[in-house]
Amino acid sequence: MRILVTGASGWIGSASVTELIDAGHHVLGLARNDEAAAKIAALGAEVVRGSLDNLDSLRVAATMAEGVVHLGYNHDFSQMAAAAQTDRAAIETFADVLTGTGGPLLIASGTLGLATGRVGIESDTPAPDGHPRLANAAYVLGLRERGIRSMVVRFAPTVHGAGGDHGFVAVLARIARQSGASAYIGDGQNRWPAVNRLDAGKLVRLAIDKAPAGSALHAVAEEGVAAREIAGALGRFLNVPVESIPADQAQSRFDWLSMFFGADIPASSAHTRSLLGWEPVHPTLLEDIAAGHYPGQ
């Protein structure tokens, strides 16, 4: 199948492109600049020029494919509403091209916002007043009524691994190195789900091959890793003390990350595993930290 992938040169996208190609798909990777184009070509995919804020380029690219894996997103927390609007316009463009074809449209979302203090599951419906991106996921699930094999992959907030993760754990490592201590909030028993980027890439491929229309899937390998364990692993690798800080000091220590690192947000992938036969096999979050993939530079 000819599959257009946005975010093809990115952290999850590059792993997904490799999986799709290895499974026999012809991948077209959307590239917004020369650097992205070079990375996509090196993966063995066909380069298609375009960007998420150029809808004409997206429309042309989508007409060259039989399905779309939409992983590109602007993760600027200072412009969440604008980023979600750009994302919605891109999704609507892809939907217009794929309507009535039965082709797959997979988009990325997250398990954040599903539940607090209990394990989130695939059938959960995120609160409508949550992150503006969540409304886009709900829209995509409804596209099955337009003859599109639509699916939403909710990624764990920590997608870790070797090779240049710039996500939450990388930020925690940098803060620990700069402050001279690896901290957690309160008793540190709040949990974060996690998944290795290579396992996440395989899930994307399995979803394209097998998932029925209207599927909500969880890219979660570990249901919940305690914040205290994450801080401890970073402390051991960086050779800095590990400490608990009270909630009223979290903002000054972690800045914008404090609202996430203090949350208890475990999530299950039991249904996803049963539906797709997905079984994560790559290193865990704590194993990747111990292996030195988060130097805190």
TrEMBL record:
Database matches in SUPFAM superfamilies: NAD(P)-binding Rossmann-fold domains (SSF51735)
All residue ranges annotated as the NAD-dependent epimerase/dehydratase domain in the record: 3-211
Matches recorded under Pfam families: Epimerase
Gene3D superfamilies per the UniProt record, alphabetical: NAD(P)-binding Rossmann-like Domain
CDD domains to which the protein is assigned, alphabetical: SDR_a7
Domain of life: Bacteria
Listed PANTHER family: NAD(P)-BINDING DOMAIN-CONTAINING PROTEIN-RELATED, PROTEIN YEEZ
Name this protein carries in UniProt: Nucleoside-diphosphate-sugar epimerase
UniProt source species: Paraburkholderia caledonica
